[in-house]
Design brief:
The protein is α/β, with parallel strands linked by helices. The chain has eleven helices and 13 strands. The protein has a single domain, classed as 3-Layer(bba) Sandwich (Glucose Oxidase, domain 1). A nine-stranded mixed sheet has the order 1-13-11-5-7-9-10-4-12. A two-stranded antiparallel sheet has the order 2-3. Strands 6-8 form a two-stranded parallel sheet. The relative contact order is 0.24. The model has no long low-confidence stretch (mean pLDDT 95).
Length: 316
């Protein structure tokens, strides 16, 4: 299949390519699964889900869950309940029901209630993944990311990191982008974590058409990162103040320049993973110089679910 470039997409939308609930996941063909299998040489396994209890406190005002262990009758053992759990409180996939475009709606024009993470769960997510360790590369060239600021990962940083790693990226690969944010978060004390949750500022991809173009033209099946929001936070922190004045009259053009999610989820159909724990995988990749792996992910089979832990493994 010949994929159009970003500039060839009508209205920046990929709907005509895949008018369904999977978007770019359609690129995970049997051939791409076999390409992922070919990456397995040592049988080394890396679990990519972060602790469910982290961040603590949760970010974005999300609820902290309560875990209760129950005793079974006759002292036979236990079961447990988790209440107040937000599926986006830790490592997650953002499903297509998470964000809609104010003009075009949800991805593909599909009705809200017809989207759901269960579609991805029943299909499964398996393929070749490539780690793009932007955090390590930025530090190596004297431009370390500032983890307590909306420090942008520039569109060119992606290609420059791939080149420095000697990594190839093929259409249909899953892009794993590491900033190093989780590693930094682990070093915060309780007071620092509470202050962060109260006033979140974090690095990430620079919002805007230039980033959407670079991502689309790589043709990934999905994008997963280790920072809280994929893009810089808070939204609009890097934008020209004049853009906000244009929202009312030119929303369709201006909004993605402020909040990249508006372009990636509802228009391009690119699944987004957030707060994935990529640190151990990154250490191994840096040690052996191989940044590609087989990736598997089994989201929750939750009908009409908005999001899910990725339940992701990388295998080398």
């Amino acid at each position: 299949m010949t994929l159009p470039s970003y500039d060839e997409l009508p209205d920046g939308r990929a709907w005509s390519l895949w008018p369904d609930e999977f978007g770019s996941l359609n690129l995970l063909t049997p051939e791409r699964v076999l390409a992922g299998k070919a990456c397995v040489e040592r049988g080394a396994v890396f679990a990519l889900n972060w602790d469910m209890e982290l961040p603590d406190p949760p970010l974005f005002g999300r609820s902290a869950f309560v875990h209760k262990v129950n005793d079974l009758d006759h002292d036979a053992g236990h079961d447990d309940d988790v209440s107040g759990w937000n599926t986006q409180s830790s490592s997650q996939w953002d499903g297509f029901r998470h964000i809609k475009h104010a003009v075009h709606g949800f991805y593909g024009g599909v009705a809200d209630e017809d989207h759901g993470i269960h579609h991805w769960a029943r299909r499964g997510i398996v393929g070749r993944a490539v780690l793009v360790d932007v955090g390590r590369w930025r530090e190596s060239v004297g431009r370390p990311l500032q983890y307590d600021q909306p420090d942008p990962v520039e569109p060119s940083d992606i290609g420059d990191t791939l080149a420095a790693q000697g990594s190839d990226f093929e259409p249909g690969d899953i892009l794993l982008l590491r900033t190093g944010w989780i590693s930094w978060y682990r070093g915060l004390d309780a007071a620092g974590r509470s202050a962060l949750a109260a006033n979140l500022m974090a690095p990430g991809l620079r919002p805007g058409t230039a980033t959407a173009r670079v991502l689309w033209d790589l043709h990934p099946a999905a994008l997963a990162v280790d920072n809280p929001a994929v893009e810089t936070w808070p939204p609009g922190a890097l934008a020209d103040p004049e853009l906000f004045g244009k929202l009312a009259t030119d929303y369709e053009e201006v909004a993605p320049e402020i909040f990249l999610h508006f372009a990636l989820l509802p228009l391009l159909g690119l699944p987004l993973g957030e707060m994935w724990d990529l640190d151990a995988l990154a250490e191994d990749c840096a040690a052996d110089g191989r940044y590609h792996c087989l990736l598997t992910s089994a989201p929750l089979n939750l009908k009409a679910g908005v999001a899910s832990p990725p339940n992701a493994l990388a295998i080398k």
